[in-house]
Write a structure and sequence with these properties.
Strands 3-2-1-7-8-9 form a 6-stranded parallel beta sheet, with helices on both faces. Strands 5-4-6 form a 3-stranded antiparallel beta sheet, with helices on one face. The chain starts with a strand and ends with a helix. It has a single domain (about 1-220), classed as 3-Layer(aba) Sandwich (Rossmann fold). Helix 6 (about 60-75) runs parallel beside helix 10 and helix 8 (about 150-160) packs parallel to helix 9. It contains 10 helices and 9 strands. Helix 7 links the parallel strand 2 and strand 3. By secondary structure, the chain is α/β, with parallel strands linked by helices. Bound molecules: 2'-O-acetyl adenosine-5-diphosphoribose. 2'-O-acetyl adenosine-5-diphosphoribose binds near residues 100 and 194. 2'-O-acetyl adenosine-5-diphosphoribose binds near residues 15, 173 and 211.
Length: about 220
């Protein structure tokens, strides 16, 4: 399974692209790059505080729950997500590969300490309790490399997959978008679940148009 922002849309988490998407109102280079953080860490943190508060109030939807149930039923199941909201874990998914990180974790720029941080009243920017260094959200920003080990596990899962379900992603951000292509090339049957038809229909075997929160429970029921 490869999921993107669309899987959390019905939980109330805004998507990035498309109508009402975050990148319609904000420029990624102002908020989601290492350069933006170096320039104005307080601004970047205020934006993450806004997102953390918003997501804190969100609950997993039937799409997250259906994926957790599929995991329990299917041996060899892997879930790769681009989402940083942590909702897959809340729904019961045991080991989602969060290839873009998780906004409930922070990392110190000085000592490298990474830890879970769920408090919503942090200063902007917060500092490391161990060394006083600047903390950043433990997410991947534009222009940064993904965690190599996670990415390798995701590649391996994609290349070994018999079936890949691609849910709620515009599939424009690489390398995540290339995972479905790699799976297809390696012989997987690729099913896309999205509100919109895929831009390149030769990349998918079946396109299921609709809301993830309706399509996935229906798939589960049929399986
Ligand atoms: P996008 O916002 O680019 O795409 C969301 C996709 O979900 C679109 O194709 C929508 O049509 C679809 N969609 C919306 N609501 C849906 C629903 N209820 N059911 C099914 N599909 C729905 O999100 P991503 O592809 O995840 O990067 O974006 C990839 C990356 O770009 C993100 O991880 C983030 C962003 O910049 C980082 O944070 C590094």
């Amino acid at each position: 399974m490869l999921t993107g922002a669309g899987v959390s849309a019905e939980s109330g988490v805004p998507t990035f692209r498309g109508q009402g998407g975050i990148w319609e109102r904000h420029r990624p280079e102002d908020l989601a790059t290492p350069q933006a953080f170096a320039r104005d860490p307080a601004l970047v943190w205020r934006w993450y505080h806004w997102r953390r508060r918003l997501i804190h109030a969100c609950r997993p939807n039937p799409a997250h729950l259906a994926l957790a149930e599929l995991e329990a039923r299917l041996p060899g199941f892997n879930l790769i997500t681009q989402n940083v909201d942590g909702l897959h874990r809340l729904a019961g998914s045991r080991a989602p590969l969060e290839i873009h990180g998780n906004l409930w974790f922070v990392r110190c720029l000085d000592c490298g300490e990474r830890r879970e941080e769920r408090r919503l009243d942090l200063p902007a920017p917060p500092s490391c309790p161990l060394c006083g260094g600047l903390l950043r959200p433990d997410v991947v920003w534009f222009g940064e490399n993904l965690d190599q080990e996670l990415l390798e596990r995701a590649w391996q899962a994609a290349q070994e997959a018999e079936v890949m379900l691609v849910v709620g992603t515009s599939a424009v951000v690489r390398p995540a978008a290339s995972l479905a292509t790699a799976a297809k090339r390696a012989g997987a049957f690729v099913i896309e679940v999205n509100l919109e038809p895929p831009p390149n229909s030769s990349q998918v075997d079946v396109s299921l148009l609709g809301k993830a929160g309706q399509v996935l429970p229906a798939l589960l029921e049929a399986s």
